[in-house]
Amino acid sequence: MAASRKASMVLKAVKKISVHFCPFESNVRSTREFLAAVGSGKVRSTNINCEVVSTVKHDNSEPVVDVTFVDGERLVMKGAHLTGFEMLSAFQSRCTAKDTQGKPAAKK
Amino acid sequence: MAATLCLKLLPKQGWLPLAQHVRHGSKAVTRHRKPMHILKQKLMAVTEYIPPVRVIPPGAYESQTKQAREQDTAFTLLLKRNLKNLFQESKMIAVVQNNASTAEDMMILKNRLHKHGINVKFFPNQVALHFLKGSIYSNMAPLFIGPTVLFVSKEPKVSEMLKTLRSSPQMTLLGACIDNTLLSVEGIVNYSKLPTMAVVQGQLVSGLTMLTSHTSSMLQHHPAHLSALLQQHIKQQSPDSSVEAAPAVEKAT
Predict the structure, then answer these.
(1) Is residue A36 classed as helix, strand or coil in its secondary structure?
(2) Spatial distance between the Cα atoms of B39 and B15, rounded to a whole number of angstroms
(3) What mean pLDDT is reported for chain B?
(4) Helix or strand (DSSP H, E) at B226
């Protein structure tokens, strides 16, 4: 799935990732896969300050991933009709974009 | 051959011809990627693979061969038997998703849970799903996605389990089957807040006998009131007589 790009996921620009889902729904597979990929040790070790919070509810609500970046931007992904790969690639592209923005600014 | 020609044509040293013909390039096996000969390039371009056009997208319908291929190996049978025994023996089975626990974390967690008699079990999701579909616990099937761990115990020690899980942030409690009842996270929390069996039984008994005790107290209300009044009267009478006797004795003396 995202095995080829896992190593290059850098969370330096991410402040907090909160994942809400209801495990008894049928549309949570992608959200759980996203959580498993993001919560893994390798990825979390890139930024120890980043919190990964997962909430389990039972109120038939949609699975939601809420990412707060360091510069205040928020990325909200509703995983009901998305695949895990799409969510991961979107998240990763934002991360790398933020990273490349941050690095030239730091270098200057 | 070119070398021998060169030797004849270049008698003087340091003389290079105007045009150089490449009669031999590199060998067949090189360290760099050798450019293909133009004829080979043409052949490869002509003989490229054209896949057959599929009318139905590949993931649309489940292939029938896949269903036939699902035959239980001996290992899966063993695992299913283990699962069956587990479900029969243990009163509490909790499903937890662990995103990133190192072996060290796992060991510490196992140690903490073992003190309360909770075992940590790993089963492959496919085997678990196959087993659950056949048993009465089929509603637990959607819980088994991704990296899951089973916490099984004979006694439902929910509060200790919750405390232990709170210390490890990457374990997410998904649901539990306690006393053959499927509970969500809220249900588990409510279950942990319940008082013990004795207290609950006492409360139930007191609630049931409240009516009868009220009736009996109402029936006995009148005689009880009468007896209380009489006792009060006696008390009043006896101090009066003792007070009368005391001054009479004082007067006598």
Answers:
(1) helix
(2) 34
(3) 81
(4) helix B221-252
The 10s digit of each residue's pLDDT in B27-71 is: 889 999 988 889 999 999 999 999 998 887 776 676 666 665 567
CB burial string A54-84: b at 16+ within 10 A, e below? bebeeeeeebbbebbbeeeeebebebbebeb
B contact test, residue of A16, A19, A30, A32 with most B CBs within 10 A: A32
Percentage with pLDDT > 90 across chain A: 0
Quote the ipTM score: 0.74
CB contact under 8 A, A58 and B143: no
Q: From CA A91, how far away is CA B199, in angstroms rounded?
A: 52
Question: Could you write out the DSSP letters of every residue in A39-79?
Answer: TSHHHHHT-TT-EEEEEE--SSPPPEEEEEETTS-EEEEET
Mutation pick from B172, B177, B186 vs chain A, by most beta carbons of A within 10 Å, is: B172
Q: Nearest CA to CA, how far is B163 from chain A (Å)?
A: 16
Residues 6+ apart with CB under 8 A from B189: B162
- Give the C-alpha separation, B55 to B32, whole Å: 43
0.80 surpassed by pTM: no
Cα of A96 vs its chain's centroid, Å: 12
